[in-house]
Amino acid sequence: MATNTTDNTTGILLADGGCNITTATCNSCCSAPPSNTTSEEEPEAVIKVFMFEYRSQEFVELIGPRFEEHTNGRVKVDFSVVPYAEGDTFLSEIENGARLGLGLYDVFVSSPVIVGSGAPYNGFADMTEYIKTNYLEEWLDIFPGFRESFSSYNGKILMIPFDGDLLHFFYNKNILEYYNFQPPRTWQEYNDIAEQVHNKVFPPTNKTLVGSCLGRAYGAGNAWTAQVLSSMTQTHGASQGSFFDTKDMTPLTSGAMVETLKILEMQLKYGHPDELNRTIDLNQISMENEECMLSLNWGHAFVQSSNQGRLGVGRVPGSQKVLDRETGKLVTCNKDICPNAVYYDDIGFVNYAPFAGGGWGGAVNGNISDEKKKLAMEFLTFFASKEESRKWVIPKVGSQEYYAGYDAYRLSHMNVEDYVEQGFDREQTDAYLYSIKEGLASPNLVLEIRIPEVAKMGSIVDIAVINHLNTTKGITATDQMRRDVMTDVTANLTKIISDYDARATIEKMEKILPQYQKLRGVYGELNENKNLIGEVRWVGYALGFVIIAMALLFGGWVAINRKHRVVKISQPIFLHLICFGVVVLSCAIFPLGIDDSGSTERDRDVACASIPWLVSLGFCLIFSALFSKLWRINKVFAAAASMKRVVVTAKDVLKPFAILMTLNFIVLLSWTLVDPMVFERVYTDELTSYGRCVPQGNQWKGFVATLAILNFTALVLVNVQAYHARSINDELSESKYIGLATLSMFQIFLVGIPLLAIVYDTPSGK
User: Fold this and answer.
1) What is the pTM of this model?
2) What is the DSSP letter of 563?
3) How many C-beta atoms surround the C-beta of residue 522 within 10 A?
4) DSSP labels, 11-63
5) What average pLDDT does range 478-499 have in this prediction?
6) Stretch 204-224: mean pLDDT, rounded?
7) What is the pLDDT of residue 11?
8) Do 444 and 149 form a contact (C-beta atoms < 8 A)?
9) If you write DSSP's letter for every residue of 178-200 in order, what string do you get?
10) Residue 313: its pLDDT value, please?
11) Nearest Cα to 229, choosing from 467, 482, 474, 517?
C-alpha cells in the first residue's frame, strides 16, 4: 500500500547507497518523508510519482516543489511512497501494473532493478526520441556506463539516471601511514592489513582499532559479497556476466563462491564485533569515528564525510585467481585469461572488477497518454539536468543536500574545483574523482543485476552468507562447509529461474535468459542467426587444396618431362604459367571462406581486399599464357606457310602477357588504395544478418569495369588464336580443348550470374 506516512523500523533497503531490495532493519541509512506539499492554485496537470521510501524525503520536500516552481505552478507533483514494511510489494506492483497495462502512476523512482520488472511487459515508455530531441547534450554528459547499461533495455532508453553508485574502497589515511602500509591490491592483502591492526591501540587517538568495518545485517551485505565474487567471476566485461553467465544463465558460483566465503570469514574475524547485526551505517560511522582501518562503501560516504583530509579513497581490491567457467575451478590470472588485469612485479596479475550499483533513476509509465509521458519526462530531465544535479552531487558541506548522499554520474561532476568551493578537501576529492573515473572507465565494470526475481535471488544469497558467517564465527570453517553453502545457493537460484521460466511458458511471457541478455546488451549477439559459413568452409578448402595439389602435380610432371617431344612441343614455360595461374585463382577460395567466426575485423577486411587480386590475376595469368602460347604457334606456322624460316622465342610473345598483367596490377592497386573491399554485416531483421564484402565508396564500379574489359579481352584473344590454330595438328594447337574450356566458363557465367542475383538477399541461398 502506497502512503505518505511511514514506519521506519523495518522494510526493504535498495541495493544502492547502502540499500538493497531485501527485507532488513534500517538504522540510520534511510529517512522517512513528511507529508507532501500542496498548492493553493489549481494546477493544470498532476504528475503521480510512485517510489520507495528511501530518498523520498528530498523528493517530497525539495525536488517536487522545485519542479512545481520551475513550471510556475502549472504542474503539481504528487508522491505515493511505499513504506519499508511493505517493500516486498514495490517491484511486484510495478510488474503487475505493467502486465495489466495500468496507468495508475506516471513516474517510477527507484534503483535500476525495476527495469527487469516493467520492461519485459512494455511497462516503461521509450524515452529515446525525447532524449535525442530535447536532452541530447545533457544526456551525453552522463557517464556511458550509466546511460548505456543501467538506463537501457534492448537498445531503448527506459530510465533517466540521477545518482551514480560505484563501490569504493575507503581507509583511514592516518592509521595506514602510521603503520607504514600501502593500500591493499588484493583481498588477501586487505585481510592481512586488517589482521595486523585489529584490536591494537592507536597511540595518536588512544582508540582500539578495528581491522575492517562492513555492516552485514540482512539486506546490507549483498554488495560486499557481490564485489568479492565478481573479482573472480568476471574478466571480460559486463557482457560476460558476473553472477550469471549471459550465455545460459548458469550461476557463477562453484569454486568462486567457496573462495568468496573464505575471504568474508577473514573479514569478519578481523572486523567489527557487531557486523552481523548492523547495516551500512556501521561502515560510515566507524570510519568517521576513526576507529576503523578499512571499509567498502558507496560514494556518499565521501560526500557526507566529516573527516575531510583524513579519509583515503582508492580502488576496490581484486583477485589473483579467477573462475574457469568450463571446469568451475579457480585458476591463476594471466594476460590471456584476464585481459583487463593489472600486472605487479611482486604478485603478478590482479583482476579488478569495479562494482556499479546503478544509483537511482526514474522511469515513465508506458501506459499513460503521450501528453502525460512528455510531462513526466520533463520532470525527470529537470531533476537530472547539469544545473539541478550539481546541487545534490556537489552540495555545500553541511547543507540539506549534503546529507542526501547523491553520487557523481556526469562528466561535469568531475571538476575538483567545484568540490573545493563547496568545502571539500582537495586531495581527498582528487582521490575520490580518480576512483570514479578509473572504475566507470574500466572495461571490466560489473553491473547490478536487473532481471525479474532479483529480490528473491539476492535474498537467497544474503541469507546463505549470513547463516554461514554466523555458524562459523569463532571457529575454523572447512572447505566442505563452504561447498555445502555453494551447492545450496546454486540449487535455489536454479530453481527460481526454472520456476519463473515454467510460469513464463504458461503465460506466454519471455523467459529470464533473453531478458538478462537484453539488459546486458548481448541478446542479439548471442541469439543472432549470422548465417555463418560453418563447416561447409572445410569442403571448399578441401576442394581448393585438391585443385592446387593437381596444378602443382601437373607443373611438376611438366618439369620432369620437359625434354619429352610432346611436352617440348607444348611449350613448358607457358604450361608452368598456366599451372601457376590455376594456383593463384584457386587461392581465392580461402578468403571467401572467412567470416566472423574465429577472425578479427582486420582479418576479414584483408580477406575481402585479397579476393579481387587473386581472381583477376589468376584469370589473367591463365588466359594470357594461353594466348602467348597459341600466338607463338600461329606465328611459326604462318611463316612456314609463306615458306619463310623464322625463330619465335618465348620472349617474343610474352609482351602481350606482360602488358595484360601490368594493367591488371595497376588497376587492382588503384582499387585497393582508393576504394578497398571491406567486410560488413548486413541485418535483415533484429536477429538475422549475413556478412559480405563491399567497397567503401562508389569508385569500385570503374575498377570492376576496367578489369572486366581487360580480362574479357584476354579471353577473346585466346579464342581468336585458338580459331586460327584450328587446322593445325592437335599435338600443337589444343584449340579443341581451349574451346571446350571457354565454353564451360561461359556456361558457368550464364547460369551462375543470374543465380547469384536471385539469391543476393538470401544469405542461406548464397
Assistant:
1) 0.69
2) T
3) 18
4) EEE-SBTTB-BEEEE-SSS-----PPP--SSPPSEEEEEEEESTTHHHIIIII
5) 95
6) 90
7) 29
8) no
9) HTTPPPPSBHHHHHHHHHHHTT-
10) 92
11) 482
